[in-house]
Amino acid sequence: MITFDKVTKTFPNQFTALEDITFEIEPGEFVFVLGPSGSGKTTLLRLILRDTRPTSGRVLVAGQDIGLLPNKEIPNLRRQIGAAFQDFKLIMDKTAFENIALALDILKKTDREITSTATKLLEKVGLSGKEHLFPAQLSGGEIQRVTIARALALDPVLLFADEPTGNLDNQTSAPIINLLSDINQAGTTVIMATHDRDLVNQFSKRQLHLDQGKLVKDTKKKKKAKKEDKPDKKPDHKNTESTAPQTK
Amino acid sequence: MKSLNKALTNIRRTPYQSTAAILVLTITFLVATIVTYLTVGLYQALTYFETRPQILVFFNPDAKPDQIDSLKQQLQTDQNVTQVTYVAQDEALDIYRNLNKNDPLLLELVTADILPASLEVSTTNLDIIQNVSTTLQGAPGVDEVVLRSDVVDILNRWLKGIRTAGLAFVAVMAITSILIVVIVVGMKIAGKHQEIAILQLIGASPWYIQSPFLLEGALYGLISSLVAYTLVTTGLLYSTPAILNFAGEVPLLPNSLPVLASVAGFSLIFGLLIGTLGSWIALRRFLRS
C-alpha cells in the first residue's frame, strides 16, 4: 500500500525532517506513527500526499513512485488518500455538513448523493444534529470527527490521521481511536500519527517510532524478527509438542 | 453550474468591489460601443458618397442639346467613367421639390428655368476625378463642374481619425479594466488562500478551484458590456429622429438590425474576453505565490 524506500527529506533551511526512512505498510493495516513533536510525523503525511517531495529516496503509493507523478495527477492521488490534519484544515465559514459536502462535490457527486452521503458520515462519526454548526461552535473532539468524516467522504483506500487526539483528553481520545479502528475493520488502511505513547500502548497495533527524523523502531520488524527466530527453536518446540502426547 | 453559483456568491458577498469593477468596465464598453457606432455610421456615409456620382457638370441655360449629347457620348467612351446620367431641368426641379417638400416658400420661388441641366458622372476611382474634371471644365456649354471627392476626403479623414483615436482610447481603457479585474479577483483569491490550500490538499482539481474566479471575471465583463450596449443603443434609437434630420439622405444612422446585432455580439465577446483575461492573470499571479 505505502512504501518508503530510504526516504530523506531536508528542507531549504537545511533542517532534516526525515532521514533514511524505510518501511512498508500493507493494505488493511492499522499503524501508529509514534514520536514527539518535530520527529517528522507531519512530513510523513505531506510526503504521502505529494505536498512535498523527498530529497532522496522513493515514496510509493499502491506501487507507484509518487515523486514521478505529473502535477496534473496529484489531485487524483489525494482523492485516494483521506487525511485528517493536525490543524484540522476545515473551512471556518462553512458548517460541518458543508465541509464534508465540499469533499463530495470535488468528486462530482450529485446534490442528492452529497446530502445522503454527508448525512450518513455525520451519523457515523456521531455528529448527527450538529451538521449546521460551524467549526467554531464545535468542541475539539467534534471538530476532529468532522475532519475524519471529510476524509472518509473521499472513500479513500488509506486514511492518515495526524495527531487526531493531540488536543484531546483521554476520555475524548478513546472514541476517536475506536472510530478509526472501525474504519480499519471496514477495510481501509489507517495510519495514525501521535505523540501519546500511553494511548498507543492500549492497542495492539503496529507501531513506527520516529525520533528526530529517524525510524528508531518498527514493531512489525520486531515481530518478523521473532518469527524468523522461531524456525531455529521450532524443532525443539515441535519436539516438545510431539513428545507431549507420548508422555501422555 | 455549481461554479457559476459560486461566482455569483463571490460577487454578492463583496458588493463594493464588484460594483467598482462593473462600473469601470462599463465606462470602457461605453466608449468602445460609441466608437463602434460612429465608425459604422461614418463608414456607411463614406460608402454612400463613394457610390454617388463624384462629378456634377452644370450646363449654361443656353447650352444646346447637341453640345450636351456630344459631351455625354464623349464621357461614355472614356474607360475611367462608369456611369453618366443626364438630369434635365424638369428633373432637377423634381429633385429640388422633393428635397424641399416641407418648405413651401422655397418651392414657390423656384421654377425649372433657373435650375441648370446637368450630367452626373461616376468614375472607376477617386484618383482620376481631377483629370476628368479638367477635361470637362473647357467643354462647350459647361457652366460649372462640382467635385464630390472633397466630401469623401473629409469623411475618410474623420473615419481614420475616429478609428485611430477611438482604438487608442479603448485600448487604454481596456488595459485599465483588465487591471481592475486583476485587482478585484486577486483580492478575492488572496482572501480565500486558506480555503484554496485546503481544497488542493483534499484533491480538488485546478479547474474546480479556478473556474469560479474565471467565471466571476467573465461575469463582470458580460454585465458591463450589456449595460454599456443597452445605454448607448437606447440613446442612439432615442436620437434617431434628430440624426435623420441632420443627415438627410445620407445613411449616417447605424440602426439596421444586422448592425445592432453585430455590435451586441462584438460587445459581449469583448466583455467576456476582458473579464476572463483579467481573472486569468489574477489566478496566474496569486495562485503561483
Total count of helical runs of at least 4 residues of chain B:
11
| Greatest interface | A-B, 20 and 14 residues
The number of helical segments of chain A is 8
Order of helices and strands of chain B: HHEHEHHEHEHHHHH
What's the CATH H-level superfamily name of chain A? P-loop containing nucleotide triphosphate hydrolases
How would you write the strand order of the largest sheet of chain A? Answer: 6-7-8-3-9-10
Keywords:
heterodimer, A: 248 residues, alpha/beta, Rossmann fold, 6-stranded mixed β-sheet, 4-stranded antiparallel β-sheet, 8 helices, 10 strands, globular, disordered C terminus, B: 289 residues, alpha+beta, Alpha-Beta Plaits, 2 domains, 11 helices, 4 strands, 8% strand, elongated
What is the secondary structure topology, with strand pairs?
The complex is a heterodimer of chains A (248) and B (289).
Chain A: E1 2-10, E2 16-25, E3 30-34, H1 41-48, E4 56-61, E5 64-65, H2 74-80, E6 81-84, H3 96-106, H4 111-124, H5 140-153, E7 158-162, H6 170-185, E8 189-194, H7 197-201, E9 206-211, E10 214-218, H8 219-247
Parallel strand pairs in A: 3-8, 3-9, 6-7, 7-8
Antiparallel strand pairs in A: 1-2, 1-4, 4-5, 9-10
Helix pairs in contact in A: 3-4, 3-5, 4-5
Chain B: H1 2-13, H2 15-51, E1 55-59, H3 65-77, E2 81-87, H4 89-99, H5 104-109, E3 118-123, H6 129-137, E4 142-147, H7 149-191, H8 193-201, H9 206-238, H10 240-247, H11 257-288
Antiparallel strand pairs in B: 1-3, 1-4, 2-3
Helix pairs in contact in B: 1-9, 2-7, 2-9, 2-11, 7-9, 7-11, 9-11
What does this molecule look like?
With 248 residues, chain A is α/β, with parallel strands linked by helices. Chain A is 42% helix and 23% strand. Chain A has helices at 41-48, 74-80, 96-106, 111-124, 140-153, 170-185, 197-201, 219-247, and strands spanning 2-10, 16-25, 30-34, 56-61, 64-65, 81-84, 158-162, 189-194, 206-211, 214-218. Chain A has a six-stranded mixed β-sheet with strand order 6-7-8-3-9-10, with helices on both faces. Chain A has a four-stranded antiparallel β-sheet with strand order 2-1-4-5, with helices on one face. In chain A, strand 7, helix 6 (170-185) and strand 8 form a beta-alpha-beta unit. Chain A starts with a strand and ends with a helix. In chain B, strands 2-3-1-4 form a four-stranded antiparallel β-sheet. Chain B folds into two domains: 2-49 and 153-288, no CATH class; 53-147, Alpha-Beta Plaits (2-Layer Sandwich). Chain B contains eleven helices and four strands, in the order H-H-E-H-E-H-H-E-H-E-H-H-H-H-H. In chain B, helix 2 (15-51) crosses helix 9, helix 7 (149-191) packs parallel to helix 11 (257-288) and helix 9 (206-238) runs antiparallel to helix 11 (257-288). Chain B has helices spanning 2-13, 15-51, 65-77, 89-99, 104-109, 129-137, 149-191, 193-201, 206-238, 240-247, 257-288; strands at 55-59, 81-87, 118-123, 142-147. With 289 residues, chain B is an alpha+beta fold. The model of chain B has no long low-confidence stretch (mean pLDDT 86). The A-B interface holds A 49, 51, 72, 75-79, 83, 85, 89-91, 102-103, 105-106, 150-151, 154 and B 2, 194-195, 197-206, 208.
